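quick one before i forget lol
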Amino acid sequence: MKLTFQRTLPLASLVLLSQLALVGCGPKDADTANSGNMSGGDNSVATTAPGQAAENAANSAGNAVGNAANSAGNAVGNAADKVTNAGVTAKIKNALIMSTVLGGAGKKLNVNTTDTEVMVMGTVPTAAAHAEAIKLAKANAGTRKVVDHLEVKK
């Protein structure tokens, strides 16, 4: 179930309003509420003072709002974690192009990304450039496996 901030905020507001509406349902006399068993018998009923009821309602509403915010934050975080294949390819290509170790060779490399792997293909001028290209691909591939199809020019 995917919760969004727009759905959880009204729910939290509804909980807050219902809790505040119940504040007036406590005993009318705070002294009676705090005195406990006035008859001295064992059949007393524990009651809550109106101020305590308001505090309880506010705490409950605050918890509901906090939970709603956490749910919304988690939904946003989950969406951000699901980076598209094209986005991963673009990140890796950008890193390869910007690399000073690869020089212009980064522009000539091909990157193909699927849900489970990133394939780096092409020719690099040196072993150091090869190592740099694979390092950059791994740094930007997320949880995907990097498949090395690079050749070092001889």
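fyi The helical segments are 5-21, 30-35, 50-81, 85-98, 105-108, 127-140.
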